[in-house]
Amino acid sequence: VFDLGYFAFPFLDYLSERGCTFVTRMREKTSYEVARELATGPFYRDSIIWLGKHRADRAAYPVRLVELLIDGTWYRYLTNVLDPRQLGASQVWALYGQRWTIEMSFAAVKRCLGLAYLRATHQNGILIQVWCTLTVYQVVQDLRLEIAARKGWKEDEVSWMKLTESIGWYSSRPSRDGRSIRDWLVQGASDVLTKKSGCRHRRRTALPAEVVAACDPPPAVPDLLPISPRKPRQGDHRRSEKETQDLIIAALS
């Protein structure tokens, strides 16, 4: 799942060639040709398309264009899962809505856990710092989830900054009753020490009822046959095989 910053025909083809499924947004003014129309209506449209109309600029693999009318605006998403029975339109929308979580994870790792600054200059030292930081991230994230569940909060209501500061406070002033740091944070710490002062609403949490009704059930496409790739754009500047071997796509849960 990625946003428009990664939208490029060679990258989409690279993922399809290697059997990776993706969900992203459709960039405005992108030319395309409709190969098969799967569904059409006032709130939901679904079709299989070829990106790029002209021989000098086109993608090699077909993708699925999902269009949803939300609050008077058409939102358009792309995926290489061509069968809507495998990945419905509402699922495409929900998956793309989760793209921001990786940015929140990066912010926590850099700001709260100190990965904004590298403390080594050689590759092995940098990798040690990165993996140690990610290990600590998972431990603290587990604490966040437990605190949120115990207090009846949403996960996003537990502040990363306040939580790491509370851990530092505990380590310098151990609890006198012998409780572990986990027990103290989950049971004894004041809400002020861990809860955010406010949470900004980032996105919709549910589709409008009329859009859900239009998407469910997904359109039946019994004649959906494999679509062979076409010749990509001429003068393709995609990375060589050696360069693509070094591409690493990582995510934080």
Q: What keyword list fits this structure?
A:
5 strands, disordered C terminus, 253 residues, 38% helix
Descriptive overview:
This protein is α+β, with helices and mostly antiparallel strands. Helix content is 38%, strand content 13%. It contains 9 helices and 5 strands; from the N terminus they run αβββββαααααααα. Strand 4 and strand 5 form a beta hairpin. Mean pLDDT is 84; it is low at 235-253.
Topology:
Elements: H1 9-17, E1 23-25, E2 32-39, E3 44-51, E4 63-70, E5 73-79, H2 89-97, H3 100-112, H4 123-151, H5 160-172, H6 181-188, H7 191-194, H8 209-215, H9 241-244
Antiparallel strand pairs: 1-5, 2-3, 3-4, 4-5
Question: How many H/I helical runs?
Answer: 9
Overall radius of gyration: 23 Å
H/E element order: HEEEEEHHHHHHHH
Seen as an oligomer or otherwise, the chain set is single chain
Report the major sheet.
5 strands, antiparallel
Runs in which pLDDT lies below 50 for 5 or more consecutive residues are 235-253
Strand content is: 5-15%
The amount of helix comes to 25-40%
Would you tell me the structural class of the helices and strands? Answer: alpha+beta
- Kindly report how far apart the N and C termini lie: 13 Å
Mean pLDDT: 84
E-strand count:
5
Shape annotation: elongated
State the strand order across the main sheet.
1-5-4-3-2
